[in-house]
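Researcher: Dear colleague, please comment on this protein.
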Amino acid sequence: MLYRKPRLSEYILARVVTVSLGLYFLFFIATLFFLGSNRLTWLTLVFVAVAFATFIYIVYRGTKSVQKELSIVNKYLANLEETDVIDYETKFFAKEFEQINENLIKVLKKYKKREEMKQKYTSKLKLKNRQRSDMISAIAHEFRNPIAAIMGYAQTLEDDKDLNEAMRDRFLSKINTNSQKIENLLKRLILWNKFESGDARLEKTKFRIKPMIDTVCQDLREKYKGRHIIVQGEGFDVDADRTLMEVVIKNLIENALKYSDEDVVVQLEGRRLSVVDKGVGISEEHLDKVTKKFYRSGTHNWDNSMGLGLSIVKTILSLHGSYLKIQSKEHEGSTFSFEM
């Protein structure tokens, strides 16, 4: 299109010049008609022409100032996404444009705040998606072995009808053990999901902690045949969620049993509980990461049971106003402790 809309200064200048020329032409004719052609008439016409020209120039300059201010506002609006700061010191010709600039600053602040919130939300969403992907991968990894074992033993029992009774009982025991593993994994996932959704609620009661530890140790001794768990100290009274504290203690002692071959010691000193092992230990590189959810390391198969075990422990202790302290040296052992 050849037609271009005029700028504000061009539009107003064209209108003013047109009107001024029209008025000057009428004034020119009227002056010559009434005063005749003499020196005074021509001086008057020249004076009026200069006045009209001055008026047109003043209008033009004022229009340019208004156009400049409009350009500033338009520049901000056109590049709102790229604009980080609006010039607060801009001097405006008209009060209305100054108010527009102030309102524009408010709009820009709100826009930037929304953008920041959007970016944070997007980052959180990406993190959640990545964690969900890690979780699915971890679940698949953890469930694969017990499921494969159950399928293998069940297939053997089904195919070999002449299998002797001792072997049959052994296979059934293996199937039962692996089924328990799957159930424990599911319980852990359900518990973590409650923490993530905020549905977990503390149901505090007052109880002595040592009898609970003795019960947990007895269950673990049956699971880990031939392993010794030594409990030292008389214990203390706590006001806590009994079920969740049992999860904490079981996780800590079972981790110690998994990653060491020697005796595991549970120490009760004052209001502090410590679980000590002489196992593989944790390298300094992984020490700050083992309590993070979904964290997995290939070192010594330290995979933290889907990356949820110690993370759950940390969360439960946090709900009780405590925290998990880890002291460990690689190839020397670890101490996991907390104070109520």
Summary: The chain has a mean pLDDT of 78. The radius of gyration is 42 Å. Residues 204-339 form a domain with the Heat Shock Protein 90 fold (CATH 3.30.565.10). Strands lie at 204-208, 229-232, 237-241, 264-269, 272-277, 325-329, 333-339.
